[in-house]
Amino acid sequence: MDHYGWNKHIWDIPVDSLSATKKAYVLAKVLFILASTCLRMSLLFFYLWLVKDAGSSVLRMVIRACTVANGILGVVCCLICVLGCR
To answer: What domain count does the chain have?
Structure first.
């Protein structure tokens, strides 16, 4: 981590290592987005498993809609992170 300059102020980092620092930052951000999306998906699947015998089809549809929305949100956030203009 020291060669990325993460233990220094931004004005103390050499200009030639800024490219590697930005790449590592984007990679860490994408991995965080993927991990949090997977965590939310696992909770939603657990909720779906809990209500499988509850008889409430409306609740199951709401959970499925939240699952789809979460998947779309995860993909969009990753795309914005990687392809976003600076």
So the answer is: 1
Q: Which helix (H) or strand (E) holds 50?
A: helix 18-50
Residue at 30: amino acid letter: V
pLDDT exceeds 60 at position 1: no
**In the chain, how many H helices and how many E strands?**
2, 0
Is the entire prediction scored with pTM above 0.90? no
Count other C-beta atoms under 10 Å from residue 16's C-beta.
Answer: 7
Helices 18-50, 57-83: inter-axial angle, 10-degree rounding = 180
Q: Which domain holds residue 58?
A: 2-83
Q: What is the pLDDT of residues 64-77, one digit of tens each?
A: 999 999 999 999 99
